[in-house]
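General statements about sequence and structure are easier to judge against a single worked case. No coordinates are needed to read the tokens, only the vocabulary itself. The sequence in question and its structure tokens are set out directly beneath this paragraph.
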Amino acid sequence: MAAIGKIRSWGPWLVGIIGLALFGFIATDFTKSCESHANAERQQVGEVKGEKLMITDWTAMLNEYKSIIQANTGQESGIDEDEVKDYVWQQYTIYSVISDEAQKLGLAVTDDEFKAFLTDGTSPIFMSLARQFGGFGYINQRYQIRLSFIDQQTGRFDYNQVSQMYNSLKKANEQQPQEYGELFREFENYWNAAEKMLRQQLLIYKYHTLLQACYLSNPISAKEAYRANTVQSRIALASLAYSDISDNTVSVSDADMKAKYEEKKEMFKWINETRDIKYVVCEVEASEADVDNLKKELTEAGKQFAHVKADSLTVEDIVSTSHSTVNYLGLGYTQEGLNNIVAGLAARVDSMSVGDTSEPFAVDDDMYLVSVIKKYEANDSIQYQSIPVATKASADSIVNLLNSGTPFDSVTFYGQAATKAWLESAQYQNATSIGYDDKAFIRAITSAPRGELKVMPIGSNYLVYKVLDTRNQVKKYDVAVIKRPIEFSNDTYNETYKRFNDFISESPTTDALVKNAEKYGYTVRDQENINKGTHRVGGYLYGKNGQVVTDPKTRRPLYELPNTIEAIRWAFDEAQETNVSKLYDRFGDGKRLLVVTMTKVHPEGYLDWESAKDYLKNEVLRDKKFQMLSKKLGNSIEAARQQGAAVDTISGIMFGHATINGIPERRLSGAVSAVAVGQTSKHVVKGENGAYLFQVIDRTPESNDDLDMKAIVRRCIQQNRSYSNFVLNELYERANVVDNRYKF
């Protein structure tokens, strides 16, 4: 009993200890739950109508789309990742919005319907996707497979080819799985992805068709629409331009702009958060010392050409050890070939003597040195006939056969016939590299006497050949060209980096950044309304000629600052207005530095009036100038002329169209149609460029002869279908789309 009493005396302490233990257990569980939720949020790429898109599904969607592109183009690299992400995101959001609406309406794509869709093959969906993918077929370079599933003559998708391809690969996989298993799986994955996309596109197409069918017309509205674009008026027009009044003479207050903002508030509706940034790019350039050092290197390399024979050096050795980006081929260039290396090189070489070596010279961002080995006359085009054989004995046997009078065309070796071809300088003179056998072959063909049979070893085989014809004798130049890019040294980079970093250290705010940029000689650039789907800071890369630089392989335009998504993340996840980022370096070609400052946040909803200040000010200026000009125009053409108005006769004014000095004037076109012939407008018209007063001189009579009202109604319905985009925009807005792609 004493023990029980003692335990009772500990009651409050025990309750407290047990309570703390329970709290610790619950808190731990709660913490784990929070961590789990946070991890899930970090894996969320986006959201549409409350449905979350996780990174695993997003990655699978990207891979599916890339597999289709690769199968249609044969490219395994060079695909623009940003273009892929944008297209897949667009299709995902559109399908997510429309599929939900389609389900409410009972719209679906059945298996039978989809099979009929594939078999028919005439839907515009096929050609639309073919343009998107660069074709609609299957290419596999490894197995030399190139198929187009679109008939280029009819534009029809041929599902029979898909079925035949699938069945033949399936059979081959069953018989030789080691050889064809990978190819079969690749094609199966490709077609599964394509079929999924086609089903989605078909449902979207069905919904569009149903939506567009809701936009109708009738004979009355169709007739008015026809009249609006056929009946023309000729008018006497008195006009005064807004530009006649200086902006400085018109007072515009904040109250004026706020009132205009309220009037046009719906124009400034913002469905996604965006941000404005300013940024500064610093390009690291080679210093004078870097250029001088490169000149010294090339000069020393050039001196070696004089000692090629004495020191057992070869021209190839000198060019190779100088790290030239142009190899020495020893095959001779035409003037065109020289100019393909660098513009103006042919004239420079022509002015040099054999054995001369130039001083280093710079063109754009490269430095060159050229040494003339030989100049000679040679044929630019050579026709030859040849046949490869396995052994020297076989080659000699064929030569004896040909010398006995057997025509070359009738000779075969293990079923392979002799071939005829033309060898031209353009085929090899600007190659980046040429193998030993290829070089030997070119030298043999270009030096062989016409009509004489020759035999040469090619690898482990032999080639019997004869030159048949030669054309176009030109001057050729055997030259060695050393080409080196003008690059900055590590010291130059470090010096530039330090100076740019000093600039950032002195610029903790936007205002300071803008002010100090002028002191340091940097240019501040603006990039407005970036959103979470923006991939990079800045735009395209421009060359010194002012043209956009493109990738030589893919022909796609290059960006000045690729891979700057980290700066975009900073702008959305960390930055506050007027904050300045850290220094980002080594962008683009590795010689650009970047700093970003966040200047304005535009939250979802309505754009604040100050962000639209420039537009609002121009609108208020136009309103006030119109009021001033209206008083000058008065109520008659003659009175307006006396006030200095320009008076012209304007023809071709229709309700649906009116252009004054190249600017559409919709208010004027509507006003003219409402005024009778011979009458003057009762009110001055507020135009885009000025104030207008007009008198209708005459009007073409309305013609109802041979009017095909049914055709006009159909045309109006077709035009009205564009309004379906407004419905889709409204659906998108209601879907509460969340875009987190910038995080991944």
The first strand starts at residue 44 and ends at 48. The first helix runs from residue 2 to 9. The CA atoms of residues 291 and 486 lie 7 Å apart.
